[in-house]
Every structure is written in structure tokens, then in C-alpha cells.
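Posting for a labmate who doesn't have an account.
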Amino acid sequence: MRPIAILPLVILISLPLGCSRKQGNVPPTKVEVQRVELTEAVKTITLTGEIRAQVESDLGFRADGRITERLVDVGDHVAAGQVLAKLDPQEQHSAVDAAESDVRAAEAKFANETSNLARQKLLLAAKVNPPSEYDRAEESFRTAQSALNAAKAQLGTALDGLAQTELRASNSGTITARNAEIGQVVSAGQCVFKLAHDGPRDAVFNVNEAVFGQQPIDRNVQIKIKLVADAGIHTTGTVREITPTLSGAGGTLAIKIGLEESPPAMTLGAAVLGEGSQPLGSQKAITIPPGSLASVAGQASVWIVDPATSAVSARPITIARYETDRVLVAAGLRPGEIVVTRNTQKMRPNQTVAIAEEHQP
């Protein structure tokens, strides 16, 4: 009978212990916060592009023919005047030979007419021949002289045609494209090589026009250019050129940023990141970190800390725009209010918090 009497006593003793645990004080949750303020609404833009030469040329022969030699390839650095490729010169050699023959014949004719004119001049002075004979000799002399000049001009044209069978670099630079091979027949003016000139460099970005909205692109803003392969290699530049028309299926604008300095590692074709800010007029807005956002009843909200009670409450907000590292708030917040910036998913209404760290906007 004694064991049955002891059981209620044990239950009575254990109940107060359980109750005392439930009634213990819960410490306030530590949170990170930010006191929101109005700031200039500047849109930070990051784009990916590549390094190009500011000046590029299409190089081609000025004569028709079949390519017999190709002396350079894509990526080769060439000097001004260097021979890049050659055409079959047989036709041009034949033209030069014919022109040289014409010059020799014209020189012989001119020499003969020169002697005849000199003889007629002596006979005229001695009054042996009439003046008409001298006039005919002078006319023949001038005709021979004109024929010789024409033959020499034709020889010059033939020699120039022979020189055009060699394609030479117009400037020093790097070959960036090749559009013909040995054995291919090309026409005059057809692009065979693309040459990127040595000198200033651009960072070129193909940008959708929607990125900038209705705001004009500020050509004076400094753009920071970083090498994708090594962000420690960077330089700055400004907008040098914007294509006036859209290109490509996506409707993009080509924006060329002229580099103030060109680090050696930023070679032609190197992938780079461009970072710049696009001002939105004189507009000011409240910005909060992305970690401040919460969803309460399906609506974008933030948790506001009451400085008097240290309790939090949910506040619906209207978002103007999302950016990489911040959110612009159109409505719902007032300057000076304190917003929880981390662990918002753990918040509940009237929860008491302790501020662990306050960030600046």
C-alpha cells in the first residue's frame, strides 16, 4: 500500500519545476539594423565587354587575282609596310614587259625626231629648205615626245599593278581576322585581313537600350574597367562613341569606352567588366539592403524597430527598383526609421530585439 501513496507526492514535486522553466524570461533577439535616409537615386550598372583597338582597318588587294602566298595569320603583330600576302603576278609581269617595250620604241622614235628637228633647224638657218619643212619636223618631234610620255605613264601603271600583287600593312598593329586562303581568287577591294592598329584601346559593350531607361547616357562619367580574369588589373575610361542605331536581334547599342591607360594584360579581345553609375536626374529615394525585404501576407514588407519599446512591427512597402546590392523604396518608409536588415524571416509582430549592429545607408 505504501508505493501507491508515494506516487502523488512525486507528481506534486515535479509540477513546480516544469512551471518554473516555462515562466523564465526569453532574451531579446539580436538584430542588425539600418536607419533609412534619403539618398541620391544613382543607378549602378555593371556590363561585360571586350577590349578592342580604337582604329581598325579592312585590308585587301587593289587588283584581281589568285592568292599564291599568305605570310601572316590571326594574332600576328605586323609592322607598317610589311608584306601580308601575294597574288599570282604573271599577268602583271606581262603588262610590265609590254609597257617597257613600248617605252623603248617611243624613246627610239623620239631620238630620231630630235635629230631630224636639229637638222631641219640648220637647213632653215642656211635657207636650204623652206620653213614648212621645219614646221613638219617640229610637229613630228612633239608627237614623238607625247608618245614617249604616254608610254612611260603606261609603264608606271603596269609597275603599280605589279606592286599591287603584294598586300602590305597600312599601319603597325595586330591581325584580328582572316577572310581568304591560298588559292582563293579575290577581287579588288575584297577584305582579306582585318588589322587592329597599335595605339589607344576601347572597352566595347553591347548594351540593351532598356538598361538606361529614359535617361541620356552621361559621356563624362568615369567608368571603371576590370579584367574578368583578374579583377586586380583595372583602369578607367569615358564614353567615346555610341552607335546611333540598334543592332542584333536583341536591339543593342554598341558603347565604346576610351581607356585612359591600357594595362599590358588587357590584350585585344580580353573580357572586361565595366562599372559605372547612371544618375536619375535630381531624384532622391530611400534605399535598403536586399536582406531587409520580407514577405508578410504576400506583400513586400520590412520590419521596423520601435526605438521606445525595442519591439518590431511589419510595414508594407512599394518597391521602385531592384539593383545588385540595394533596393529603392518608392513608398512605405520615412527617413529616420530603423529597419531590420538581416534574419527578417525570424521576426514576428511585437518581438523584442536588441540592436547588435547599425549600418549606414
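Reply:
Got it, the C-alpha cells are right above this. The chain is about 25% helix and 40% strand.
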